[in-house]
Amino acid sequence: MKVRIKFAKYGVMRYIGHLDIMRYFQKCMRKADVDIAYSSGFSPHQIMSFASPLGVGVISNGEYFDIELKSGSAKSVMDSLNSVMVNGMEILSVKKLPDGVKNAMASIAAARYTVMMKEGCEPENTDDSKVDDFLNREHINIIKQTKKNEIEFDLKPHIYEFSFDKNAYRMLIDASSSGNIKPLSVIEEYARFCGTHITPSNYQIIREEFYTYDDDHKLVPLEALGEDF
Amino acid sequence: MSDKLALSDDILMNIEKPARYIGNEINCVIKNKDEIDIRFAMCFPDVYEIGMSHIGIQILYDMLNKYEDVWCERVYSPWIDLDKIMRERNIRLFALESQDPVKEFDFLGLTLQYEMCYTNILQVLDLSGIPLLSKDRTEDDPIVIGGGPCSYNPEPIADFFDIFYIGEGETKYRELLDLYKEHKKNNTSRYDFLVKAAKLGGMYVPCLYETDYNDDGTIKEFRALRDDIPLKIYKEIVTDLENEDYPVKPVVPFIRCTQDRAVVEIQRGCIRGCRFCQAGQLYRPVRERNVDDLKKKAMQILANTGHEEVSLSSLSSSDFSKIEELTDFLIEECSRKYINISLPSLRIDNYSLDTFGKVQDVHKSSLTFAPEAGSQRMRNVINKGLTEEDIIGGASMAFERGWSKVKLYFMLGLPGETEEDIKEIGVLCDKIARAYFDLVPKEKRIGGPVQITASTSFFIPKPFTAFQWASMNTKDDFLNKAYITRTSILSQLNQKRIKYNWHEADVSVLEGVFARGDRRLAPAIHEAYNRGCIYDAWGEYYKNDVWMQVFEDLGIDIEFYTTRERDLDEIFPWDFISCGVDKEWLKKEWLKSKEGIVTENCKKKCSGCGAFRYKTGICMEHVKKEA
Ligand code: SF4
Question: Which residues sit with their C-beta closer than 6 Å to ligand 1?
Fold first, then answer.
């Protein structure tokens, strides 16, 4: 059966890169004795696919990967995995996916982020009065640097929610493969709109959740498509 | 554990592989520091990925942390990028687990695996804020203790250490730690503690000894400065390895390391007396672990780590008496769990080829031979019991089973080596290629035609070997010999199928200086460090011109240490240490090598090397047989 696993990554673990996190989970599957399926061939590997890489330094409360499980219950998989997690890694849910559900990566439509000042950094843009004006513009054009040249890009259709208070930005933005945007692009542009600028490395990004569209074309968390087992 | 980190987010986000510095790995040990008496920082003075791959550290880490009153943590050399930042911003080196400064610890243990790490020792001390010279340290500094193969000739780095632990760590640490606790309780002086430590056995405390030299630079006398400490220090070894503990919960790194697998140590020592090999002498006599215990431990390690590969560690796995039983067991168990097995140092024969065939893709993997010398004459000189028939026969068997890649390892600069001996390297490679083309018809050459890779390293005479008296080649000799090797390969019929790699010569010369060096080298190491040398083992950071300048400025004659053939009766800087093997026996081996006379291995016949004094392992087999 296809199983979707949601996990959090925080604390010192934010410095571990995506490839190492994949290797970490492969080891945890064996250490926790999870009955995961292997591919066939001369060097079989665990059938496991991640929704999206998480950049080094980013914290997340909503990462996902799918595995092919041969036996076990949601509770047993979750408990045994949590019993082998290191500090800063936590399994949040284990759900079985009904047939026909697209894999985690292909399902992603949007992501929710919180972005705030890192500890010890001076607050930069403190103007939270212009959020409505910012969002009410017809276009929110930014200049995107591509390999060859600079192009104008409209953020507006990709921002689904955006708020700013107490030095924390919260947003729900496009994370689909065709139109994903970066949370820092949004706050940089907001700062520009307020007549100031920000230093990206001063911000801690927290990915809160990934969303997909359900049958009614409503955005729901990636785990909502699965069921208990 | 809290989220405490010694390095700020700003630093961690701007250096390579921050995972090297955050700890928190699977199976790392966290203790409450208020509940322990002794804090031990265990350091491998090289970058994390190298240091984490070393099983000796894992063994000591496990052992020390099993003591309730001790917390052992790990320390590695910060990589070049972080090293620079730490110096600029005055950040103290820290241990991974607690992220606390090393300076606050009771002990700093450094494992000395190769000579080219010597400047990294100074880096670690310096960044920790510990005075580089033992004599400048106070009660506020950790006790700096060295161990590992280079501690068998500790003299070039003697000034930097308070103690060298000679031999295997399992035997004496508890006594040393108890002594330390007593010293803390009674508030005695550092000097008092060191004197007591020197009497424990296996402990060399350099500040309690002195060396006098002759006019020609050789040693006149090595003296103890007190009469209550031993003049000869015997190595410590585990005499009951069968029942000795082994870590079943090793720390599992997040980032890829050199050794990214579960490692099971099956035996210590080696029965073969290859005359160039230091490890083969240092760890005598050969002692095996219990096979049933090994099976159990291997499975426990895999379960506790989640590793996807298991490997056996020993100097020569094929000589382990239960090797077939153990590998058969592992293959059976591991294939069910999709775990790979890697089997280095297995001799090529019917059994090993069958086994390899089960665990690897024969078309992709390569066979490895270490003839070490091209000609049979030379292999007799070095006592390497591998004949041309063994190699061609083994390779042929493998070709028939589908292998087509062969790797061969040789040394250049061996004592008494002639141009003819070197040219034989090319000839041997060609013979292997011919065997392939004779045996394997065109339609069966699946992995592509045969590929032979010959690699040469430069021979460096090491203490406690039969060649400790030998003259080492100069850099020009080495390069010339590499050239002869290359030409001999290029002149072969199948030269297109043979690839040749050779080693850097500069760094071999420096290694040769330190390997048989004495106390007069410490100022040079210190000076080279001051002039910016660290990570000498890393080709891209090795500054040969700086080193050469330092030797010149300090009036140190490199050739005195390298090319000079030693007099049979010369007192060596390491003579006050015993690894169990007698100098007289080594002398006989040296003379036999000149005649090309071989010595049988310990399994066939005891040649009376002296290691019998430990009354264990293979030596006792002979006693049993006779009885
Ligand atoms: S005493 Fe004999 S058996 Fe023991 S290690 Fe030496 S040569 Fe080998």
Answer: B 284-285, 602, 606-609, 611-612, 618-619, 622
